Amino acid sequence: MTAPAALDACVDLAAIAHNVGVVGRRSGAPVLAVVKADGYGHGAVPVARAALDAGAVALGVATVAEALAVRSGGVRAPLIAWLHTPSTDFAPALAADVEIVVSSGQQLDAVLAAAQTTGTPARAGVKIDTGLGRNGVGPHDWPDVRDALVRAVADGTIVLGTAMCHLAHGDIPDHPLNDEQAARLDACVAELTALGAPPDVVHISNSAAALARPDLSRDMVRAGIAIYGFSPLEREHGDLGLVPAMTLSAEVSAVKRVSAGQGVSYGHTWVAPRDTTLGLLPAGYADGVPRLLSNRLRVAVGGRIVPGVGRVCMDQTVVDLGPSTDVRPGDRAVLFGDGAEGGPTATEWADTIGTIDYEIVSGVRGRAVRRYVDSRDEVGT
Ligand SMILES: *Cc1c(COP(=O)(O)O)cnc(C)c1O
């Protein structure tokens, strides 16, 4: 096992595998693991491999560039990409056996043009805007796009792979729009089928719906945040048994005694109320520790939870280790992890500053160095 860097983003691939199992069991459907945004900050290729080993049947990313990066990592599994711009070049994606899911007639035309140059039918899909109001083919454009898809299937330019939509209120499982969106997608699939172009794979559910609305699972569920160990559902849905895969920890770079009255960090927003000991951590907002967490952090170090004090800086964070401490430079402090034994979590960071854990984990960057472990390797050894 490699040694952790000064700022270590350690990903437990056993947690990824476990979470894929949870999503599969709760949704009752095969799992497409979403590894966009470099695997929500966890590393797309290692996460993809771990998810596939754990039974995921397919992968999804936003962009062609992300899809090509997954292929460059040697991952051959079915892979879809669903977010494109007018300048996107689809030819390398088709050559790499990436299924392009289009959101407009213009994107479909570009895929058909690229497919015609390759000589073999391209696998393409369609994303339908059934109510999210974001990307996807909207109701006004649907008849034209539908007919173009049917023609392209009939003339052998494409094989129709995916038909999908994305929910606006997936995290509110009983919201009526979820059922309306599903009904609209089902209607579009029925039209394609009646016109002789049935899609191969239909899906609706993100993590939230996969976990709470198994009736919305069609052929597959597209799970992102849940496979990284976070639930997008409110706590009243109970403990789903997901395990956060990433632990962000920092080496304590310095420990120093200060006297009562010493202000700490820019603006002296915290002043030591008593003689105490400060610990310095090499993690700041440039690494993904939000500055809004200034004076609101909890850090696990030396078997205790200690408060972050003063402003989070670009490169550093300060913690109050208390008047007497055994913590020494070189010890490790956990900024967030799986929350076992009451330790801090990315969800707690998000709740504290009014965002979502998606933004916290996908925002780990800067000097943080990713490392992979598999806690299954430690069992019984
Ligand atoms: C990101 C994304 C997902 C995954 O959503 P989670 O809430 O992370 O499960 C699924 N589908 C689409 C279209 C997405 O963009």
From TrEMBL:
Q: What does this protein do?
A: Catalyzes the interconversion of L-alanine and D-alanine. May also act on other amino acids.
Task: Name the domain of life this protein comes from.
Answer: Bacteria
Names of the cofactor(s)? pyridoxal 5'-phosphate
Q: Provide the Alanine racemase C-terminal domain boundaries.
A: 245-373
Its Enzyme Commission number(s) read 5.1.1.1
The entry sums up its family as follows: Belongs to the alanine racemase family.
Binding, substrate: 134, 314
Q: What is this protein called?
A: Alanine racemase
Entry keyword set:
Isomerase, Pyridoxal phosphate
Matching SUPFAM superfamilies: Alanine racemase C-terminal domain-like, PLP-binding barrel
Which Gene3D superfamilies does its entry note?
A: Alanine racemase (3.20.20.10), Lyase, Ornithine Decarboxylase, Chain A, domain 1 (2.40.37.10)
